[in-house]
Amino acid sequence: MACCRFLRLQFYHNSCRAFRSRPSSSSSVALPFLAVPSCPRYYPLSFCHVSSSSQVVAAEPYEQEQQQESHHVPRSPDLVALEYSDLNLSYNLDLGHVRIRQHVNPLSSSFSVPAQVPDWNQVFADPTLPLMVDIGCGSGRFLMWLAKRNPKVRNYLGLEIRRKLVKHAAIWVKDLGLDNIHFLFANATISFKQLVEAYPGPLQLVSVLCPDPHFKKRHHKRRVLQKPLVGAIVDNLMPGGQVFVQSDVLEMALDMRDQFDEVDLLKHIDTLNADMSCDSEGWLLSNPMGIRTEREIHAEYEGAKIYRRLYQKQE
Ligand SMILES: C[S@@+](CC[C@H](N)C(=O)[O-])C[C@H]1O[C@@H](n2cnc3c(N)ncnc32)[C@H](O)[C@@H]1O
Fold it and tell me: Most buried pick, 95, 127, 199, 226, via CB within 10 A?
């Protein structure tokens, strides 16, 4: 137990050191976590997913954990469980340890093989329904929440590069008895195009939510949203279809925004719908999905701002 805590603390400190030492390229690109006085957590989301034993676990500084335990202050993993409590998910799955601490390198050869296109009739009850694809879906609970609320209206496909999370999500989907959602182990950067091109119905919504930032310049090529993926999203979206992107890391949000802003076929939603307004910097004022993602919950708990953009393809 003590050893485990030490490792968690150690990881946390290493993360903080790494992120603090990042060069900040421009003073206007202030990174939200640098503004918070005590070093907030920026750890891979999957670090706080599920343990075999039962609950959602997260890396936390030991002292903070002790303090919170004694004052019964809810921790952000508790808030995640609360936000998804409607799903009634079983956390007692005997899957071994599902704690994954490292970012994967999507450029490594093990992730270079395109995912096989599934038989859509096998994975969805009605494969002609409009499709939402969540790129880098993490544990998948965000998408499960949506799928449960929208049966027979839309299908949901989660693409995730961590096989264990996909395996775990599939068990949850089976538990929930949902027939409009599927998770695929895939490097979305290279597999998205062929997957959606083979889907029989229209592509209605694509989300890229809090993608791994890969801060170092030489690692930017590891970011999931590369030019060919942007092209494949835009080409395959149905007219009126939407792209939703968000991040708690301004640098990352700006990167995604730059890539979609320059697509003529896409218009930002505030120019089309007066109810969807933005702040003075052009970021959406609220989350249009009706549910927050796990990373979003953790980040907001830490006081970070979430930078969101919602684009719509011209009819
Ligand atoms: C920071 S997490 C965010 C997860 C979730 N979208 C959220 O907001 O809570 C980023 C996720 O993207 C996944 N990911 C990173 N690169 C990917 C890629 N090339 N293809 C698919 N998933 C990827 C990671 O494994 C991780 O689960």
Answer: 199
